[in-house]
Design the sequence.
């Protein structure tokens, strides 16, 4: 693979760094390594870099070291505070700056914070691009994410071949902050779809109707989605294997409501969703997949449901 890339590119291979090797960072990193890129990585909790190390990544001790070793540093951490910490904190990215350095932030963060962070980077003469993505580790591992880019277009185009390697759909959408705003609007869809599926499943289960029938019919209509066609069948088997944690979706929901406030708009449903997801976290559902919101809704209805596995005796049969 490495040799193929070298043969196919007239310019030299770009040295890439990743800061944040959680669920998403690991998958993106593995895909870049398998595609032949030279990769330097840092994670606050070092053990989470082990898999990448085995696959050829250089593991270093600080974001500063990542910057020193890279031309393109991709940040994939939790939120804006974490982005600021790895960028401007002790031994942060800016301490490893050099003239060839570009930073691209894949984390899902507040768009206003994204804009501010870009401005601070510019004070250090570093261009920071926004590259939030849609899709989880299962597609990231094959370079099949959807990537939304914003910031300096010329610099975005310079690294477009890498963005095209990470994602099979790449959009450039405007100035810094734009891509993060659109990403949050995407996560409103994810939030509502997971809730709508969970409530539909719970309602049919309360009547002892097999939820598979509900899903099969839903998926024969105009209202089907990728989530109803794929993850929903795992949900009805209580399979909430994590690709994106429920607590991280709640983090995004809070960012959405904060952003709505700063734009002085009222988004009534996401406010309601925030309280449902917060309650789920308080009841201990935060570390499972976000589709585990179904498990929480079933938990609050457990006395009515009384379902044992594969015991779907339809309540309407007399
Ligand atoms: N998973 C997905 O499907 C998906 C899809 C699209 C976008 N995203 C976004 O991508 C980002 C990462 O998501 P993930 O699923 O990979 O989450 P994750 O597994 O929870 O990883 C979070 C990462 O952020 C780091 N981090 C958190 N707080 C930090 C701090 N204060 N300083 C330094 N590092 C910090 C964590 O380091 P430690 O390991 O030390 O805790 C870890 O590397 C999030 O913004 C998420 O919303 C995820």
Sequence:
């Amino acid at each position: 693979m490495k040799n193929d890339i070298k043969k196919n590119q007239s310019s030299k291979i770009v040295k890439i760094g990743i800061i944040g090797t959680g669920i998403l960072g690991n998958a993106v990193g593995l895909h870049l390594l398998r595609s032949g890129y030279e990769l330097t990585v840092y994670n606050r909790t070092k053990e989470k870099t082990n898999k990448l190390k085995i696959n050829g990544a250089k593991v270093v001790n600080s974001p500063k070291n990542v910057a020193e070793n890279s031309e393109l540093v991709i940040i994939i951490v939790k939120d804006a505070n974490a982005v600021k910490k790895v960028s401007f904190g002790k031994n942060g990215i800016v301490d490893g700056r050099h003239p060839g350095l570009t930073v691209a932030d894949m984390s899902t963060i507040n768009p206003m914070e994204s804009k501010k962070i870009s401005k601070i980077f510019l004070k250090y003469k570093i261009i920071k691009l926004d590259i939030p993505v849609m899709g989880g580790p299962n597609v990231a591992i094959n370079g099949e994410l959807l990537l939304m880019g914003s910031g300096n277009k010329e610099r975005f185009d310079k690294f477009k071949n890498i963005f095209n390697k990470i994602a099979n759909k790449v959009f450039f959408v405007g100035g810094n902050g734009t891509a993060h705003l659109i990403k949050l609007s995407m996560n409103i869809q994810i939030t509502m779809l997971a809730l709508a599926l969970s409530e539909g499943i719970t309602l049919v289960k309360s009547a002892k109707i097999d939820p598979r029938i509900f899903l099969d019919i839903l998926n024969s209509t105009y209202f089907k989605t990728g989530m109803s066609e794929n993850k929903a069948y795992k949900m009805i088997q209580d399979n909430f294997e994590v690709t994106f944690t429920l607590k991280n979706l709640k983090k995004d929901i809070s960012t959405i409501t904060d952003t709505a406030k700063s734009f002085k708009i009222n988004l009534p449903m996401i406010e309601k969703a925030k309280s449902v997801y917060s309650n789920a976290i308080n009841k201990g559902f935060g570390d499972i997949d976000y589709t585990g919101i179904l498990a929480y809704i079933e938990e609050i209805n457990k006395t009515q449901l009384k379902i044992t596995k594969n015991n779907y005796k339809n309540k309407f049969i007399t």
